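Subject: for your reference before the review

Hello V.,

The reviewers asked for a structural picture of the protein, and I figured it would be easier to keep everything in one thread rather than splitting it across files. Below is the amino acid sequence we used in the manuscript, unchanged from the supplementary table.
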Amino acid sequence: MSAEVLIVIAKAPVAGRSKTRLCPPCTPEQAAALAQAALEDTLAAVLATPARRRVLVLEGEPGAWLPDGFEVLPQRGDGLEERLAAAFDDVGEAAFLVGMDTPQLTEAHLISGLEALGTAPSVFAPAEDGGYWGIGLRTPDARVFDGVPMSTDDTGVRQRERLEALGLGIVDLPGLLDVDTIADARTVAQLAPQTRFARALAEMRLPD
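And here is what came back from the structure prediction:
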């Protein structure tokens, strides 16, 4: 039986605090607008699935960008590893978690993550920058994230090694490109031109 819970872990899009690596060429306000578009795309993909629960684990305050249909929980913990562990613990059941940096994410990606938890204790979805865009756990377990370095070139490798060390069988999902830099943003917009993210980027007419 597949899992039925999707988690999005995100920061509220705020100028000066969101997607700062896009500046320049973006202004802080433009970077925040792209962050909001990426988050809206992600939430829309989650809403399109048949998940029983849809949970947004949020740093900051919800805005008009948040659609109906989501439970909202505050992020807990000092570092990302603690916040990831707390997100699974607070949800309290089998779940597949994604971030807000892959606006090209589709309903099919998410359903694959949920279904994979019906065949294995964990799911791992790598990102092309060395991190990961999604992770699923059949049972919450803070040990999964304890001591795993975040936001490094080998985060994904180290995270997958931890899953293996804990004896958690893994289903691997295809890799996706996280939006960190303006080059990433342009590539993702080309891959998914129908997204809010792509439209927002095009409307900004940023210099090459």
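For the response letter, the relevant points are probably these. The mean pLDDT is 96. The chain is about 35% helix and 15% strand.

Happy to draft the paragraph if you're swamped.

O.
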